[in-house]
Each structure stands twice: as C-alpha cells, then as structure tokens.
Amino acid sequence: MKHRRYVSAADLVEEFGFTERHWTRMAAAGRVPGARQPFGPRSRWVFDLATLREWWVAAEKEGRPVWSPQPRPGRTPISRVKPPSDQPSGNDLKQLVAKVLANHPQNPIRKRAGPHS
After folding, report:
1. What are phi and psi of 35, to 5 degrees?
2. Which position has the higher pLDDT, 10 or 111?
C-alpha cells in the first residue's frame, strides 16, 4: 500500500497560492481532490499532496483554470457591483469627511465663528 502524504491548507498556500480559507472552502464544496477531514466534520482539513499536484498539473496542461470563481446563488459578484449614482465618489467623499471633521465640536483646530461658538 502506497503511503500518502497529507498536508495542511497552510502548506498548500506556500506551494500553490491563495489563502488557507480559500482551500478549506473549496474542499468543503468538494472541489479539491484528495481533501478530507480525518477526524469528522468539525476537524481540520488535510490534503493528499500527490493527488492535488496531479490535478493541478493536469489542469495547467489542458489550459483550463483549476477552478473558476462561482458566485453564491442569488448574489452578484463584487466585480459587477456598481456604486449607486446618488452616493458620493471617492474624491467627493474625501471632501465630505474633511468638512464634517472640520466642523466637529471636539476638533481642537476647528475654526470658530465667534467667541462663544
């Protein structure tokens, strides 16, 4: 029987990139071959390194992404979200924040209109 080397999500981050959370979410979704939770559903994920490497190399040779981002049902991907037109833009927002801070009563350098303002 061949000995399998299992590694943590942190080890995958070093070799393949992404984040630990990314790897565990993909494993939980059943999209990572060789991933398992050896001590039950609340235990940490471990990954069969040889199986994962084979899968990764095969995907690269075929020119397909290892996985494509899939939005959650009923949600719009952030890249497609447009800011509402009635909201201030980045520069407008900076000006608005500066104005609010300048007029705040606890601002020590606030310009006062008169002796008792």
Report:
1. -95, 140
2. 10
